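Submission sheet (multi-component)
Chains listed below:
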Amino acid sequence: MRNRRLAALFCGILVLIGLTASATPASAVVHCWGASCNGLRLADTDCHVQAFEITGATGFSGGVAAGSAGVWYSPTCHAMWAVFIITDDGTYNAVLETQPEYGGVSRTPFTAIVYRQSGATSTLVDSQQSVRACFGTSGWCTSWR
Amino acid sequence: MHILALIRRLHTLMGETMRPSLTRSRLIAVVAALSLTPSTVPGEAQAAPEPKPGAGTRGAVPSPDTALGPSWRTSTDVLVAGAGDTDGYHLSIAREKDGFAWSTLATLTSTALEVGPWMGEVCVTGSGRWAVAVFAPKKAANRPNLMMAGGLAAVVDTSTGKAKHVATGLQLSHSNPACGPDDRALLTRVTGDEVNPTTELLTVDAAAGRVTGTRRLAGPVANPAPAPGGDYAVAGDHLVKIGAAGELTPVTKLTGRPFALRATSGAALDVVAVEGDRAVASRWAGGRLTRTGTGPVGNLQLFGQRGGTNVLVGTVDRPASVPGLRVLPTDRRVEAVSAQGHLLAEEVYSRQAAHSVVAPLERASEKQAGAFMVKVRAAAGRRSEALVVRTTAPQLDADPHAAPDRGIPAPVIAASVLEPSCAVPRNDPSVQPAQPSANQVEWAIDQAVHNRLFVNRPANFLKAGLDAYQPQQMFPRKSLSTGGTVPANLMLGIVAQETNMSQASWHVVPGDTGNPLIGSYYGNGGNLDVINYDDADCGYGIGQVTDGMRADSPVWNVQQKRAIAVDYAANIAASLNILIEKWNQIQAEPSAYRITLNNNQPQYIENWFVALWAYNSGFYPYANRNANPDHQGNFGIGWLNNPANTFQYSADRTPFLRYTMADAEHPNRWPYPERVLGWVETPQYKGYPVSTPAYSEPDYGDNTPQGPLGGGKVLSLPDYFDFCDTGVNNCLPFVGCPTDDPNCWWHGPVTFADCGDQECSTEHLAYSLGSGEPGVQRIYDRDCATFNEWADPQRDATKTVSMVYSLNNTAQHNLGCDGIQPQNGKFTLRLGDPSGAESTAPYAAVDLHQIGAGYKGHAWFTYLYPGNRPKRRVVGSWTPDLDLAPGTRANYAVLAHLPSHGADGHGTYVITTGATGLGEQKTCHINFHDETQWGIPGVLGAPTWVYLGTYNLGRGAQVQINNAEVVQESGEDSVAFGAMAFVPLANRTSQACGVNYPN
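Outcome: structure written.
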């Protein structure tokens, strides 16, 4: 049952990423590049084109998978973002973290509260830096990319 | 100094006998070759072979039966000596029963103070069992506060080499540490500053390995001496006994300028002092002071011996026979004597120090770290032997901020770690100065002092975002209030002393670009675990320009600040003005109190002695005499650098570098102006493989003194007590100042040379005024060769190669290479563990560097650290934009570029093959040292592309490496982050890790 729910949510998120974007009128779609993408919503750009998930992680709660986070990269925009999916009944802080390209203190350009069995997509960030996605302070994150 | 004399001196240093048939130019080349490739030194090879790694010993005295006498096999005599390099301060021991073969004892250092070479002073206790050392980075000698309290101390067991850190914050003087006839030693510390100094005396129980007591003294002392019945020292013109509470009780009046004091186990005290041109030894015993011998200044020295006796070493006339004192005749000054006096060490210096004298503009070579050179002579013999000793000793890693003598742990410094105080940042690709070679520095100084430094710097010079400018249009030369100009050679001596003529960091060799040289950017005293921006010095570049270089300073605009950081010529223009301001400040004093030297005309180098003094330790104007009550109405020039300061400097010192280059091993033994004038008189050397004087000697007046060793002229220097007058600064000539506070500050005229009668020296210009900027003399060729993507026969022509540079904005490569393409992917660094944390990431940046050694002129590098060091961790990641359609994979050869220098350690690359999630992870371990040929004698290192293997990669593939050292490999310790190439392959599916790419 849980797996089916997860699959359904994942499909929903993909629809959110792809179909929602493609359904937006062409005149509203913005093409951005690198730092100019910072803070934009994926749905408002054409960055989904050619985009792929570059790293992901599954989070566990009490030894049971609770959700997943994935970091996506757009070669079209040189931008990245995170997709968060919660599959259990918990509530989590979803965080997109970045570090300056040649090192420095982390920043959190995107944070959101994600409720049970739902998902969220972060705003975009310049890919020319280190990026990862985390679920709050629970300690599970994707690798840095 | 005449070049021929210098060459003789260098030969002396290297233990060579000069062959008169050689021409001068050939001699220079020979000297360079001898120094740069020590394994080819004939004398060394014949005396004994270089020890194999790990051997740690070397026979010192050939034919010991003859040289040492028949009983040497049963002798317990030992000699302990020390020398410093970038690894630390090395202590070694030679035991007579081994024919005075050398064994290494310990290397004393602090990895928290990665600040270049180390120096130290060492003594051995009366039992011969314990060596006590005070050690510090050599750079501390340029900082008055560190001269007073910048040293660390350790006790070393001479039997086992076990070392223990016992104290911190110690004075760097010629008489610290001081060992007694038993196992006690004394250490000194001067807290406060020139205005409010306080001297503390620490008692060390060497056998227990700890400080047993600290006394705040009633006044400053020189030459402390532990004795059976208490502790003694010299204070003013008296021998004093130091009481339990630090009170000083006069014992007897001394004559002359004492420079050595030691007690015997019989409670007698031997003292040696300079009286006129003679050194006079006396014995205090039974309430009487008795003369025990005299000798020439510089060749009558006092050392302790095992069992609590003393020995006078040198040319001793009319020696008296007293208990516990014997005479060891020799015609040369020595650095150390064995415990029973059977062996003399005439010179002790590290191989790096010898190399830096010959080629100071080169980066300190890791290859040469750990080796030091000694010139020894059996007391009964006539022949000196030059030897190389390689250290294999365990390392003592002292914490400079812990205070074990007071039981106080390292302080926690709370300060912002996110907002640097200095105006121009480190590790910024848009701030990469070019390291000049010496010819460029001399050219710029020649032009600048004559207001001719107007070379055109185009817009975006060195890609630093600057508008077009000319150095002395941006920093107009100030005028000397007396008229005239600054002698060019004086500025050359200053930049030699301050920075070894470096604009970029000391990691950067001439011809490369890299991080700027910034004095104490982090305000941490070199401690890599501390960032305290409030204490940042912000001294930038070749002249260490500090004024106006803080971020909030309005003195310079942004353009000027960046120019000072990146352009050696602009920096020289700015720093010249600082020196001019010091001169003018001194000249602006009321005439009754003005310091004038000789005829006070600025064209004479000797007349700048006090301006140099002020350049280092400041000037206290007459007008401010009452502004600070602590000044007690005093004004003028401070006490620390006064040549009469016998608390700090030995009265029998010879002029810096005049007799031996080994002086460079102990810069703490000379006041700052004497050191600068030493470098004026004796130029540094530069170049590889042939080294030549880095800059010109001055034009000596016809009546300047004649140098030693049959050499040419030398500078006229002030006598040590020329700035000493009871009516001015309470300083008694031939005695000194009884205090070390503002009452000792000097003002007023001094004459030590008749400049009008050719007793002074003037500048010598090597470059005609208005001449063009000379080209840089590189150590390494630029690595501008373009990667040959077709060199692999299996290259898949249907896909593109992904080249990931070390800079994402590839337009920031500023070494001048062409053929640089836009970034095809990204390169990132992550700092700290956990990375990005405020508690780790800012600190990991401290030991991160950029140099123009990599592909197309850029690479990052850092040092390997064993285990998990959260504040040191650096991870480099290369993520290519592979030419792959979604969901497809292909075979790629992954190639790492290894720079010719900046990477001599080893590391494991982790290759993530890419796909959703991480994909597979593979590893490839590379020894940079071998790949870049650092292990080949005479090879400085060559750049290379090396296969990390062939992998089936998908989109999102990545290569990473970090600086965590899993397996420690001695002496090879850096890892570079350069370019990475991903070459698509048509057929081949495997390729061994570590194979060179046929670029």
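Remark: The mean pLDDT of chain B is 85.
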